[in-house]
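Input for the complex:
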Amino acid sequence: MSQAKSNAPWLLSAPAIALFVALLLAPMLMTAVLSFNVFDYNTGIKNAYTLDHYIAVFTDDYYYEVFWRTFWIAAVTTGICLLVGAPEAYILSRMKTPWRSIFLLIVLAPLLVSVVVRAFGWSLLLGPRGIFNQISLALDLGNIKILYTEWAVIIALVHVMLPFMIIPIWTSLQKLDPGVENAALSLAATPFATLRRVIFPQVVPGILSGSLIVFGLSASAFAIPGLLGGRRLKMVATVVYDEYLHELNWPLGATLALILLAANLVVMLSYNKVLERKYQKSMGVA
Amino acid sequence: MNKNGPLALLFNGLVISFMLAPLVIVCLVAFTPGNTLTIPTTEFSLRWFVAVFNHSDFVTAFWNSLWLAIASASLSTAIAIPAGLAITRFQFKGRDALNGLFLSPLIVPHLVLGVALLRLFSLIGATGSFGWLVMAHTLIVTPFVLRLIVAASSGMDSHCEDAALSLGASRVTVFWRVTLPMILPGVTGGWLLAFINSFDEVTMSIFVTSPVTVTLPVRMYMYATESVDPLMAAVSALMVALTAGVMVILDRLYGLDKILVGEK
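Predicted:
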């Protein structure tokens, strides 16, 4: 009986484990191997191994530029999401029912609409016939060009990522005891001091996890830069796509994808470390 | 008590309009009678919706997406129920690692998954196979189902299972007659969430679909990079309508805020 019991959880999860080994772990391993394979434009992938693709990515200015653009766009998107999402989550948490759930739904629902649809919507809004250009023309400010620039990508990314920032902040705000806020106010703290010294420290975990999710997803976003960045404005994901489906240089594409994954992990882990330390310090002082 | 000031309400209004703007504009433009992407002001027309249904590529892609989403949501539910029960009902070595493995498709970028699966499929000759595409989608939607099933089964009173067992019910009977009915809202909520995530997925699918198995979002992406006309707006409006429909069902079944925000 005890033997059966210790096997039971493994038996129950066996189908899921099989799927994850076959379609996640094995393909990742194959891709890692692929990134070291020799590639020849005439004959394709060879069975020999080389570091050429990694050297190419790290020495070529073109890839340096693409990676730099990808990470600054992801960082700016994260920053804007934080500046918009944190106050919005706080405002929503102070609303009364039913408004609270209605507005929360409106903010979160776009999460379920395909990103292609949302990117297309933004291309309509930001294009030459879009509302922003119309306003600018009506005010005699001339044509403003947003579509196919970094800012079009950032605006659409913020739209896609905002729910991912609001959800964790909202969750940590839910755990907050409103009595604490009132206590601070009744002890003559100004509303701003209450916000900064009482509420903010308690939502730091939510801000942290929201920022990590938003940064990670933005840095690997594909459809938004693909549709709103145009042909020249490449991010890592769109370059990987080109290498795979236009250049057919799979080993180089695999190298780029893996470096993106690794860079993402490094940025996330170090950000986590820095904030954790700061957070501990502020709690220690308090 | 703690009320929002007028500035806060204005801020909220701006955020809400920002979130709704691209969806509203798509739905408006879809009704244009003209050939350009403009908002209709005097006349409204359904001609572009008719055009969608006459566009065989979009119709095929829609059916592909629908079957794919139904199949992968069902398959992932079938494997996530036992796995979820294993994680909540048993204490065993490697439990956290297993849980981490099952949730990892949420952290690995879909781009990387797409690239990796393309390599696998080309090595085993599965490119263009619908069955393997279903498996690929099952992989990425399983975390959504698993999370809801874990939440539902750790939230239910497991004494009910013990009571049934002590009254002589077999483990199989307990599962079908006690456990499953009690976690059913979580299961259906998870299935629908998996369905909509599979139906919407584009980044991974663009690598692993062939012209035969192309899904609707992938076809739309291709279409949007090639041509610009209101047809795209009409397809998008239909997608929004379908999503809204699923959302209403999800809300009735499980509470949409619970699903999107997670268990409190």
